Amino acid sequence: MSAKILVATSSKTRARQLAKALRYLNRGVDILVGDDEPIASNNRYRLLVCELGPRLADYQRIVEHISEQAFVLLAVPDVAVELLPQLMQDPRVNHVLRRPAAVEDVQRIADKLATGTIFGLDRYLPPQCDVNYRRVVTFDDRCSVVEELLEFAQRKRLRSAIRRAAGQAAEELLMNAMYQAPVEDGHRVFGDVEPSQRVRRRTPRPVSLRYGVSDERQLYLSVRDRYGSLHRDDLVRYLHRCTTEQVQIERKKLGAGLGLFLIASTVSRLVINLLPGAVTEIICMFEQPSSDRPGGLCEFSFTAQRPLIPLTADTGEYIEVKR
User: Fold this and answer.
1) Domain limits at 262?
2) How far, in Å, CA of 312 to CA of 44, rounded?
3) 15 and 158 in one domain?
């Protein structure tokens, strides 16, 4: 069976390390090292893991040789957040790491793509970590659960900067999930309702907030709605406008682009999982910067369901992959 995964890096050592971490998927892994190594066209690759570096800078040369249906995990250390929308102009690029690719990060993303199990805050927390869960229906509920989150973070002795950023992110994400996500017959439920009036109404379907602490310095939270109305193209367009045109998207206009961009400037991880028409889950991780982990966004990941695709044309084997 020909390989379904391509790992491209600057060094052979890194390539072998990442390839070894992906062999458990049993899909076959090919290695590409440096810009000078020739590339054999293989439209059967289903996953490209590409870590740019001193000897591997020509990303476009690689993607020209992979399938239009492939998934791309791109590690670009220290790339500006403002460049994320440009990278995502390629619809295959939905997973960007802004530091060298850690084995656990690559395995987590690859596992989501291979198994189709994309939802859940648990995969980012250690097994013994408790996950707090709250349901939100009204604006008063939102205020209460955010206050509980802040009290929890204070009991865990997290820094005030983390508590403040997490509280603001929870407020923004809950408002989006409650009043921007709801749709009926293709129309926004609150599209014609003024912001001051929306907060007096219940959201049609409950929204959930989950949160927990890992390593006593990392706070994770997720917000999930039951509509799945966030579209990738809209997200990329809003992020592009926010970063290039410096426009201020009015809050009275529906669309979570500005809020997500502002959140991306305060989190270490921003993960968006989508089942179109059913569920949107947004996961944020906040952590205190350290010598080995400088501050700023280190991972942006967007995974949405897509149709079944064949893994091996010769055997007819299929797997339900979600992007």
Assistant:
1) 122-304
2) 8
3) no
| 299, 183: one domain | yes
DSSP 3-state of 102: coil
Per-residue pLDDT reduced to its tens digit, 25-71:
888 899 999 988 887 766 678 899 999 988 888 888 888 888 888 89
How many beta carbons lie within 10 A of that of residue 198, not counting itself? 17
Q: Residue 256 pLDDT > 80, yes or no?
A: no
- The model's pTM is 0.87
Question: Residue 213 corresponds to which amino acid?
Answer: V
How many domains are there within the chain?
2
The partner residues of 211 in beta bridges, in order of sequence, read 132, 221
For the residues of 149-203, what is the DSSP string, one character each?
HHHHHHHTT--HHHHHHHHHHHHHHHHHHHHTS-EETTEETTTTS-HHHHTTS--
130 plus 217 within the same structural domain: yes
**Residue 317 confidence class, pLDDT cut points 50, 70, 90:** very low
> What is the domain-level CATH number for residue 25?
3.40.50.2300
Give every CB contact of residue 192 below 8 A, 6+ residues apart in sequence.
none
Q: Which of 17-21, 54-58, 181-185 is predicted least confidently? A: 54-58
Helices 232-244 & 257-264 angle (0-180, nearest 10)? 70
Q: Which residues contact 163 (CB under 8 A, 6 or more apart)?
A: 150, 153, 154
Considering the domain architecture, whether residues 171 and 285 belong to the same structural domain is answered as yes
Are residues 299 and 313 part of one domain?
no
